[in-house]
Design brief:
The chain is built from 3 helices and 2 strands; from the N terminus they run βαβαα. The protein is α+β, with helices and mostly antiparallel strands. It has a two-stranded parallel sheet. Strand 1, helix 1 and strand 2 form a beta-alpha-beta unit. Helix 2 runs antiparallel to helix 3. It is flat and about 30 Å long.
Amino acid sequence: MGDVRDGVRVVIAEDSVLPREGLTRLLGDRGHEVVAGAGDGEALVKAVGNIFLKPGPAPGGEDHRRVPAVLTHLGS
């Protein structure tokens, strides 16, 4: 995993476009990667699901348990 000082990958959930875009720019200017933005809960669940379901290396450590738990929580 990369050093925290290198930035963090985030998903922004905000129903108003202007604050969502502002946060995206603010975080990007400070070295963080905004991987998705969502305007409502349904879009957030879909965005997070798409991020974690992309093909790639198998998750390590406890990651494989946390992702389904987060998606379940967001869907409730």
